[in-house]
Structures are given as structure tokens and as C-alpha cells.
Design goal:
Length: 588
């Protein structure tokens, strides 16, 4: 399949070399070896110099045998070790003579590439499913899912792992990373190093990320259609390529993995949490007006996020945690000092083993994080007002092997919401340091319904809100409604709406209201990756159980300090005609 002039083989699998001598080969007296060399200072002890002998009596880590010997030609079968270094080897023939060892000169045309072998049972990337192997190693065209979980869109992508020059570009990435040659046979080390090298942060890797909407000095992420241009440009220019967002990182990483023979697929997680502070919760902080406090809110929820899964054994983990592993080249947070993520066992994530390497806790938060909303008072204290335990990780998709349909693999990452298994997993994750919010907040009996809408760029529109009172009493609601233009990563571009209506709702009734939103084209001028996000917070003004004539009742009254400093020596005076005589309260 490779568009290449060189021999390309997979480790753990025999290939044949035909050698021409100047006289017939005599097994009893003639001694020769086929030598394979990789790296700048080959050594037998490090597996970078491998002599392969034709007789069973003398063998190295690579097996050799004479398949056929006729006239002046010997055909030799060579089987690279199933755990050998992956990369480009030089090949020589060495002959023992009365005058010492004589070997052929280096001939570029006799170089060969050795790749990982998912067909080889002894290889760490062995995948015992032919349809998955064909899809995740051999298939060059793919589909990447994006959009929203209830409005899924598709991008076609040409991975092009067999295109001319791509294999050399992938090997150059490992060379550029200064990865020791001896580590290049271990898929764990290769994928972890590559997840750092596919982004340009801290190591001048392949792709420059850009979520600003301004792509003046590069190619807009939405304009790429395949990986080939990106990889060949990086290999030739020796400079990072501009620009990428998460699906571009995942697509090019997919090409790298498939090209080297590691089974891989692009995965999309809808409502993906980006935990900035490592507490495995998504903390949304609201200011006194009801707006999201953009300065203090560091965690975000991406509408979707793309990463990769690659298939390998995990001898460093207990039995059962091999198989699909999450790797992510999008630079979100550092891991061991570099912007990279994985490989993290999908099984470990599903079962709450967030202590396992590498970065299982971060990925666990991406699919399981609780969204906790806090109100922040002037003195800086935070009080939880709402916890949503089911919003994050709503759906995880990848392409179906051998088909152009999508495949829902959410159940590979998590047990059903609210199930006994899910509670057990979350309890286990807590034992390993997953900080969950234990607030027992009362369930609200007033709901706010916002419609899902599709709006054309530049159109004005109506936002129809419905307040639903499920209680048997009248409710008065202070509502804070905010509309913003946001990127798919949850980052705000601009705010175009803020409204603070007060609504009275009769018992077991609903009230509808319409807000006219003036959305000029200027708000969406960067619109390639933006959404409209409406955020609403409602505070119910409470009294105790309603009032009855001649019976005492209580009312809760809140005062907000409008200043940035604490108030001292404050008298509060209040009265209500026909309800309450004048009263006062002193606060030191």
C-alpha cells in the first residue's frame, strides 16, 4: 500500500532477501550474516545492530534461515523480533574470510523500514479483529464527528498514511523529538512522545493551535482536508504548521499512528470538560448579577472535543487494562512538564482507576466531571447553587469499521447514568482523589425552558422563554439572562444580551416571555467555530408556606453590599404596612 521505493515490512513477520555471491554457497564451511543497523551508533547490546545468521546453531534476536540456495544465489528468510525497534534500517551482508570480516558498502536502495505489526500475536499492538484492523490501520479516508450531541455534523478527512513521503515525515517527528532509538519499539513510549510532538507548545512540534478566529498568517483549521500537506510541510520546512484545532490534531495524530502500524481511531466526546485546576470538577462561578465570572472561572466545557484511541497491551498495568488507550495531542494541560496526554487505558477510565498512568484522571474528568455552579459573594466566599452530574460526556462517537456510519462507544467510557455500577466507579474514583461535590441542594420547583435554535449569521431573532411553576403556590422569580457568542471550546467571544426580568407565576402554571435579540453580523464575523450560548439563572423570592390571616409567617430578605469593601456597624431597619411593625437589626 505504501507509495515507496523501499522494502517496508512488519516486525514478527518473515521477509526474504536474495543474496548473490561470486561462487556457490557451502553451508559446511562458509560463514556469512545479513546485518541490520539503525541509529548513529549501533550496538548489539541495545538492539541497534542485529546480525542475522543462516544456521539454527547461531541465532540473534532476529531469526534467519536459508529458504533456497541455487547456483550463486541464496534466498534468506529473516524474521524481525516482535518487539524490535521501529524505523529505517540499513542492510549489509558480512562474510567471514581468511583475511577477516568483509562487508558490503552501504547502498541506499537496500534500506528497509520495519513497522509495528497488529497482525502479529507477539507484538504489543496485536489486534485480534480483522475488521477493526482494516479500519484502524489500513483505511485512508475517515469521518470526524463534531457539532452538538443533538445536532451531529461530519468532516471527511484523508489520513493518507500510505502517501509518498508520509512515513519519512512520521519518522522525522521522532527524530526531531530527540527520542532515544532504543525506545522506538515500545508503543507506549512512542505514542506518549508523539502526543507532545504533534503540537508546537514547548517542543516546536507539528501544529500550531489557534482558537482566535484570526488565521491571517496560516491556514484556517476548517480549511484542511487531510494530513499529507501538514506532515510533508513540517518535514521539509522543519517549522510548525499553522493552524490547528482539536480535530486537526487528532486527524494528523491518527495518520502518524496508522502509518507506523499502531491501530488507531479518532474519537469525539460531546460536552467535554476541560478541568483546569485538577480537582476533577467543572467549577462555574457566578457573580452577583448572575453573569458567569469569566476571570475566576477557569474550567470550561467544550461543545465537543476530539482525541485518539490507539490499541496496545499495557504490561505496566494489571491484567485487563490493555486494549484501547486514549492519547490526545491538543495542548490543554501539561503532563510531566509537557503538553501531552496519554496513553490512558479506556478500561481504567470506565472503572475509576484514575491513579493509573498516563493522565487517566484528566480523561476521566473529560467524560465524568460534575458541573458545579457557585455564587460568589463580595468577601470571596463561594456557595454551590446547582450541581449537574449528567451534562458532561453526553456521548462518545467514532466511525464504524468498514462503513460510513457513526458508532456510539459511550458505554466503553462509562456505565449508564444513575446505575449501581456508575456509583461504584465514582466511589472508587473518590478514593483515588476525585473531588466530588457533596452538596445536598433542594430540588427547585420552578423550571426555565430554553428552546434549541438554529440561527443564520446576521439574523435578528426571538428568544422564547417559558417559566414553569410546579408548586402549589405563587412564585416570584428574579431572572438573569445572558447571551454570548462562544467558540466550541466554551470560551466567550462577545456578549450581546443581558436582561434581568422579574416574573410572577401562579401555582402549577407557566409564563412565557419573549426577548428580541439584535444579533448583528459583526457579532459573528469569525463564525467558523462559534455558537450562541444562553445562560439563565433564576432566584425564587421565598416566604414560608404562604400567609394566613392572624398567623405568623416569615420572609427572607437579602441585601447585597454594592461596594468592594466590607461594611461594619450596619443597622438594617424594615417595616411592612399592615404586616410588620418597624424592626431593626445591628450587624457589627
Amino acid at each position: 500500500m505504501f507509495n515507496s521505493d523501499y522494502l517496508i515490512v512488519r516486525r514478527g513477520q518473515e521477509f526474504q532477501v536474495r543474496i548473490s555471491f561470486n561462487r556457490p554457497y557451502k553451508p559446511a564451511t562458509d560463514t556469512f550474516a545479513v546485518e541490520f543497523v539503525i541509529g548513529s551508533s549501533p550496538q548489539y547490546s541495545k538492539g541497534t545492530y542485529i546480525p542475522v545468521f543462516p544456521t539454527k546453531e547461531r541465532q540473534s534476536s532476529w531469526e534467519g534461515r536459508v529458504v533456497d540456495a541455487a547456483d550463486l544465489t541464496v534466498t534468506m528468510g529473516v524474521t524481525p523480533a516482535a518487539n524490535c525497534i521501529v524505523g529505517k534500517y540499513h542492510m549489509y551482508v558480512a562474510v567471514k574470510t581468511p583475511f577477516g570480516i568483509r562487508r558490503t558498502r552501504w547502498d541506499k536502495s537496500q534500506d528497509l523500514y520495519v513497522l509495528f505489526n497488529p497482525w502479529g500475536p507477539d507484538d504489543a499492538v496485536f489486534l485480534d479483529d480483522e475488521s477493526e484492523r482494516q479500519e484502524c490501520v489500513m483505511t485512508e479516508m475517515g469521518i470526524i464527528y463534531h457539532g452538538s450531541y443533538d445536532d451531529i455534523a461530519e468532516r471527511n478527512w484523508n489520513y493518507g498514511q500510505f502517501n509518498y513521503g508520509v512515513l519519512d515525515a512520521c519518522l522525522y517527528i521522532m527524530d526531531r523529538s530527540d527520542m532515544p532509538i532504543t525506545n522506538r519499539g515500545d508503543p507506549m513510549k512512542v505514542t506518549r512522545k508523539a502526543s507532545a510532538m504533534l503540537n508546537s507548545r514547548d517542543d516546536d512540534g507539528v501544529l500550531v493551535g489557534n482558537w482566535s478566529g484570526d488565521y491571517t498568517y496560516g491556514v484556517a483549521p476548517t480549511s484542511w482536508t487531510g494530513s499529507t500537506d501538514i506532515l510533508l510541510t513540517y518535514a521539509s520546512s522543519k517549522m510548525p504548521v499553522s493552524f490547528a484545532q482539536c480535530w486537526v490534531y487528532a486527524a494528523v495524530f491518527n495518520t502518524f499512528l496508522r502509518c507506523l502500524g499502531i491501530p488507531s481511531r479518532v474519537v469525539t466526546n460531546f460536552f467535554s470538560a476541560h478541568d483546569n485546576d485538577g480537582n476533577l470538577k467543572t467549577d462555574i462561578i457566578l457573580d452577583e448579577s448572575g453573569r458567569i465570572d469569566r476571570v475566576r472561572t477557569r474550567d470550561t466545557i467544550w461543545n465537543y472535543h476530539c482525541w485518539n484511541e490507539c490499541y496496545m497491551s499495557r504490561p505496566d498495568l494489571p491484567t485487563g487494562f490493555g486494549g484501547w488507550q486514549v492519547v490526545d495531542a491538543t495542548p490543554q494541560e501539561t503532563s510531566d512538564g509537557m503538553y501531552r496526554c496519554g496513553p490512558a487505558s479506556v478500561q481504567a477510565i470506565k472503572h475509576g482507576h484514575i491513579c493509573f498512568p498516563f493522565d487517566a484522571a484528566f480523561v476521566f474528568a473529560e467524560v465524568n466531571s460534575d458541573v458545579v455552579f457557585y455564587t460568589r459573594s463580595k468577601d470571596g466566599s463561594l456557595e454551590p447553587v446547582k450541581v449537574n452530574r449528567t451534562h458532561v460526556g453526553r456521548m462518545v462517537l467514532t466511525k464504524t469499521p468498514g462503513d460510513v456510519t457513526r458508532r456510539d462507544i459511550t458505554d466503553q467510557y462509562k456505565f449508564p447514568e444513575g446505575s449501581t455500577e456508575e456509583r461504584t466507579v465514582l466511589e472508587k474514583a473518590e478514593q483515588y482523589g476525585c473531588g466530588r461535590d457533596k452538596s445536598d441542594l433542594p430540588e427547585a420547583d420552578v423550571d426555565l425552558v430554553l428552546p434549541a435554535m438554529e440561527i443564520s449569521v446576521g439574523d435578528d431573532f426571538e428568544l422564547s422563554l417559558e417559566f414553569v411553576n410546579r408548586s402549589g403556590e405563587r412564585r416570584t422569580v428574579d431572572a438573569y439572562i445572558n447571551g454570548s457568542v462562544v467558540y466550541y471550546t466554551g470560551v466567550t467571544s462577545s456578549e450581546f444580551l443581558f436582561s434581568n426580568p422579574t416574573v410572577t407565576i401562579e401555582p402549577n402554571k407557566s409564563e412565557k416571555g419573549v426577548l428580541i435579540c439584535f444579533l448583528t453580523g459583526g457579532n459573528l464575523k469569525k463564525g467558523d467555530a462559534e455558537l450562541l450560548l444562553f445562560f439563565c439563572r433564576c432566584c425564587v423570592l421565598q416566604v414560608s408556606n404562604g400567609g394566613k390571616v392572624n398567623e405568623e409567617m416569615t420572609a427572607t430578605v437579602e441585601f447585597t453590599n454594592p461596594f468592594t469593601f466590607s461594611l461594619e456597624g450596619v443597622y438594617i431597619r424594615m417595616e411592612g404596612p399592615g404586616i410588620m411593625l418597624p424592626m431593626s437589626k445591628y450587624y457589627r
